[in-house]
Amino acid sequence: MAECEGLYTVGCREGKLASKFTAADLQVISENILSIDEVPDTEIPLRTAVTKATGGQGYVKCMCLSGCSSGRCSCSRKRVLCNSRCHPGKSCKNI
């Protein structure tokens, strides 16, 4: 972690976070989780760091025109129900 003009840069296994934080945003802990050598020098957005660390939600959406009745539906193939972002306004058999 580095400090410049009252703003702190926070590092993680995925890189240095692009967002800067004030002291009020952070909480001091007694142990070091990572050494500075373990933090890559690349700057990445917070969302990217979280997605890389957790594997993301595995978000799937389809744009089927046939009502998701064929085997071509990406949601059906992954055994996930279609959601509101899939083919809005069209009928669906995978709800």
The outline comes out as elongated
Strand count, sense and barrel status of the largest sheet are: 4 strands, mixed
> How many helices does DSSP assign?
2
Distance between the ends: 46 Å
Please indicate the count of domains. 2
Give average pLDDT, whole number: 87
| Strand residue percentage | 15-25%
The largest beta-sheet arranges its strands as: 1-2-3-4
Structural class given helices, strands, pairing? alpha+beta
Share of residues in helices: 10-25%
Question: How many β-strand runs?
Answer: 4
**CA radius of gyration:** 21 Å
Order of helices and strands: EEEEHH
Low-confidence stretches: none
Describe the 3D structure.
By secondary structure, this protein is α+β, with helices and mostly antiparallel strands. It folds into two domains: 2-54, no CATH class; 58-95, no CATH class. Helix content is 14%, strand content 19%. It has two helices and four strands, in the order ββββαα. It has helices at residues 46-54, 74-77, and strands at 2-4, 7-12, 15-21, 43-44. It has a four-stranded mixed sheet with strand order 1-2-3-4. A hairpin with a 2-residue loop joins β1 (2-4) and β2. The longest helix has 9 residues, at 46-54. The radius of gyration is 21 Å and the shape is elongated. The termini are far apart.
Question: Notable features of this structure?
Answer:
single chain; alpha+beta; 2 domains; 4-stranded mixed β-sheet; 14% helix
